[in-house]
């Protein structure tokens, strides 16, 4: 299983950082590499440090880590994304992966003149992904599309390692799932509880003919003692009246994944009087407005066994929602439990 951490925020309304951004990026990337993880997600939004600059720095301080760089088609054309990947490969002899995002908030997109509707943004992503893949594979692109026009264009120079680049696409809404099925090497989702995720996401996507890989975006808080894990979870993600009201507003979000998680989060029961949840799957971090994904909380074995369900179903990529300096060894131990729980078992692909 490939594990991806995420680069730290440059600033946060919830935290006062003791170290500067450059130090935190360097330390996070080195800790990920030391833990044996595959890569690191470099997010894109209007209020964060440019992901391409961050990815270039990551290449200079690591030897094997692969950036999973978020790319929004409104921010750059596909040939520019391909040429930057080629530059990265030429400098560091490594591929990078692309996490294609359409943009979740209309108000932010309007700030930069992007007036496309939700579904139109995904149709643009479809064109973007097809062109990007062709250029990475060394093909000549000749296209008169709805959003892009090319005349016998071929990427030069093109290091051979670019053929190892992968396209990740998040899928929740019908439009995003359609595009992910068409262009993705890896379809990523913020997973519902396992049984619901299988019935509402995995099986329908396979029924529509998707044959690629799967990833999930999720947070992990495992510890030796499950009570300690839950204490840490509540300390890190305190819920307030305001955060709960924000969660209620998200049930009407334009973003399908945000709307679905918010709806599930409102319906989720709180932990018991002892402060321990009855199930490792927890949306309290989402309710706190400090995280954008579900978490698995509990002992190493509990977290590993629950994560192992998704892995046995075919998940091969784990995108962590946040990571902290003192979590690496505990997450790695939980992943080791996944390997134990999946050893000798067949996946849904084999059934």
Gyration radius over CA: 20 Å
Principal-axis shape equals globular
Number of helical segments with 4 or more residues: 13
Which structural class do the helices and strands define? alpha/beta
Poorly predicted parts: none
The overall average pLDDT, rounded, is 87
Q: What percent of residues are in strands?
A: 15-25%
Largest sheet: 8 strands, parallel, barrel
**Range of helix content:** 40-55%
Question: Strand order across the biggest sheet?
Answer: 1-2-3-4-7-8-9-12
Describe the structure.
44% of the residues lie in helices and 17% in strands. By secondary structure, it is α/β, with parallel strands linked by helices. The strands form two sheets. The chain has an eight-stranded parallel β-barrel, surrounded by seven helices. Strands 5-6 form a two-stranded antiparallel sheet. Helix 2 (51-61) links the parallel strand 2 (39-42) and strand 3. The relative contact order is 0.11.
């Amino acid at each position: 299983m490939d594990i991806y951490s995420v680069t730290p925020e440059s600033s946060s309304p919830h935290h006062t950082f003791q170290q500067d951004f450059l130090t935190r990026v360097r330390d996070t990337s080195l800790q990920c590499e030391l833990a044996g993880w595959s890569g690191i997600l470099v997010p894109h939004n209007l209020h964060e440090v440019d992901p391409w600059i961050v990815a270039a720095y990551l290449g200079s301080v690591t030897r094997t880590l692969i950036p999973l760089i978020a790319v929004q088609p409104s921010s750059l054309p596909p040939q520019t994304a391909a040429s930057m990947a080629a530059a990265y490969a030429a400098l560091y002899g490594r591929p990078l992966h692309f996490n294609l995002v359409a943009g979740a908030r209309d108000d932010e997109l309007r700030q930069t003149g992007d007036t496309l509707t939700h579904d139109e943004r995904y149709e643009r992503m479809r064109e973007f992904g097809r062109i990007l893949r062709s250029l990475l594979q060394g093909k000549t692109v000749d296209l008169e599309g709805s959003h892009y026009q090319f005349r016998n264009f071929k990427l030069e120079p093109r290091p051979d390692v670019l053929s190892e680049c992968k396209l990740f696409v998040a899928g929740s809404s019908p439009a995003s799932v359609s595009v992910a099925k068409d262009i993705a090497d890896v379809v990523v989702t913020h997973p519902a509880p396992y049984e619901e995720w299988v019935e509402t996401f995995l099986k329908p996507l396979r029924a529509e003919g998707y044959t690629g890989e799967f990833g999930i975006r999720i947070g992990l808080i495992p510890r030796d003692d499950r009570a300690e894990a839950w204490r840490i979870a509540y300390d890190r993600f305190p819920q307030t009246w305001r955060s709960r009201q924000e969660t209620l507003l998200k049930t009407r979000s334009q973003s399908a994944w945000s709307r679905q998680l918010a709806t599930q989060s409102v319906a989720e029961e709180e932990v018991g009087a002892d402060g321990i949840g009855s199930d490792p799957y927890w949306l309290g971090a989402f309710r706190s407005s400090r995280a954008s994904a579900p978490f698995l909380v509990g002992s190493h074995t509990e977290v590993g066994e629950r994560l192992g369900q998704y892995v046995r179903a075919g998940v091969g990529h784990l995108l962590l929602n946040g990571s902290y300096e003192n979590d690496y060894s505990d997450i790695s131990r939980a992943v080791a439990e996944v390997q134990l729980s999946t050893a000798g078992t067949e996946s849904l692909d084999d059934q």
